[in-house]
Write a structure and sequence with these properties.
This protein is α/β, with parallel strands linked by helices and 349 residues long. The chain folds into two domains: 55 residues, DNA polymerase, domain 1 (Orthogonal Bundle), CATH 1.10.150; 263 residues, TIM Barrel (Alpha-Beta Barrel), CATH 3.20.20. Helix content is 35%, strand content 19%. It has a ten-stranded mixed sheet with strand order 1-2-3-4-7-8-9-10-11-12. Strands 5-6 form a two-stranded antiparallel sheet. Helix 12 links the parallel strand 11 and strand 12. The longest helix is centred in the middle third of the chain and has 15 residues. It starts with a helix and ends in a 31-residue tail after the last strand. Iron/sulfur cluster binds next to helix 5.
């Protein structure tokens, strides 16, 4: 039962107090449907239970510190965890969709060279409630509009926090919970091949995106340390397993870095590599220079897209969003880090 897995402390409390079992469902619904952040708001629960919950099980596990609004409508939420770590969440309104980009770890161990979060190293994994609550806060903030998509592309490598991430996604998807269709939820990985296979075998129809960033082995090792662990052929084997198993579209993220991965030889090699009709290339211009990388010009990015399409690739060039609040969705940098995150967003079709 998702409620018991998501709220083990509440389940234990209900059992110890001899409360009827249906109370757990009510508590779960108050958090995931009614989006309460204080048990006093959960008026379907009796007063004595609200008081007990307030004592023993917090309704909110994240402390919302600040909401920044960009001129294009993007919003960035800065949270503190109970142990005072900063994490960020971004909400991007786009063409009638409201996409929320969430974090799964404090920092990240993967060390991608172009990513501010990678510079932090890993502090800890987020718990399922901390992951899901980012969406609840954004949903509450934009009501009566609804969150239409969730992308797991914020701080961290979600597949290194697999159990908690999947638990949170299942609650977001649960008809008795947040009730967001699985096809509107996407997870992005830097390429852990064993976990890609495991994700393919999950019963829910969540989408997957793989951060590729170059089709060349040696270049990938330069910018993504994980490439030394899993070669591109190994990664493509896992990608093929995913599409063969799920028959779902598979997104490849590609941040264009000037002079690094944005030449025509890259576009040509991508066309050869991404040789399955269910593969889709998502291009994004890099928009942060503090790591020593710089952005491909708009003209060159469009030319790269044109070449990729000409070579038969299904490909899109995504606009950067929320630049005036440093909110490009993806590897989010904490405000006290050096700069702006540089992250591809993969809105789902
Ligand atoms: S790009 Fe993603 S996987 Fe790589 S260091 Fe940043 S957060 Fe981690």
């Amino acid at each position: 039962m998702k409620a018991a897995e998501f709220l083990p402390e509440a389940q234990q409390m209900i059992a110890e107090r001899g409360e009827p079992a249906y109370r757990l469902r009510q508590i779960y619904g108050a958090l995931t449907k009614s989006l309460v952040r204080d048990w006093e708001e959960a008026t379907s629960l009796p007063k004595h239970l609200r008081e007990a919950l307030t004592e023993e099980v917090p309704a909110a596990v994240l402390d919302l510190q600040r909401v920044s609004h960009a001129t294009d409508g993007t919003r960035k939420y800065l949270f503190h965890t109970h142990d005072k770590h900063a994490i960020e969440t971004v909400m991007i309104p786009e063409r009638g969709r409201n996409t929320v980009c969430i974090s799964t770890q404090v920092g990240c161990a993967m060390g991608c060279k172009f990513c501010a979060t990678g510079l932090m190293g890993i502090k800890r994994n987020l718990k399922a409630r901390e992951i899901a609550e980012q969406v609840f806060v954004a949903a509450r903030d934009i009501a009566p509009e609804r969150v239409s998509n969730v992308v797991v592309m914020g701080m961290g490598e979600p597949m290194l926090n697999y159990e908690a991430t999947l638990r949170a996604l299942k609650v977001l998807n649960d008809g008795d919970g947040f009730n967001l269709a699985a096809r509107h939820i996407a997870l992005s990985t830097s390429g852990l091949v064993d976990k890609i296979r495991r994700f393919a075998d999950e019963p829910e129809q969540f989408h997957l995106a793989i951060s590729l960033h170059t089709p060349f082995e040696e270049e990938r090792k330069e910018i993504m340390p994980i490439a030394s662990r899993h070669s591109i052929p190994e990664l493509m084997d896992a990608a093929r397993y995913y599409v063969d198993t799920t028959r779902r579209k598979l997104f490849f993220e590609y941040t264009l870095l000037a002079g690094v991965n944005d030449q025509m030889r890259h576009a040509n090699a991508l066309a050869d590599l991404l040789d399955h009709p269910l593969y889709h290339l998502n291009l994004l211009r890099f928009n942060w220079t503090d790591t020593g990388f710089s952005a491909t010009s708009k003209r060159d990015a469009k030319e790269f897209l044109r070449r990729a399409r000409e070579r038969g690739l299904s490909a899109t060039l995504r606009p950067s969003r929320g630049e005036d609040i440093d909110a490009a969705c993806g590897q989010l940098a904490a405000k006290d880090l050096r700069g702006r995150p540089a992250v591809p967003l993969v809105p789902l079709s």
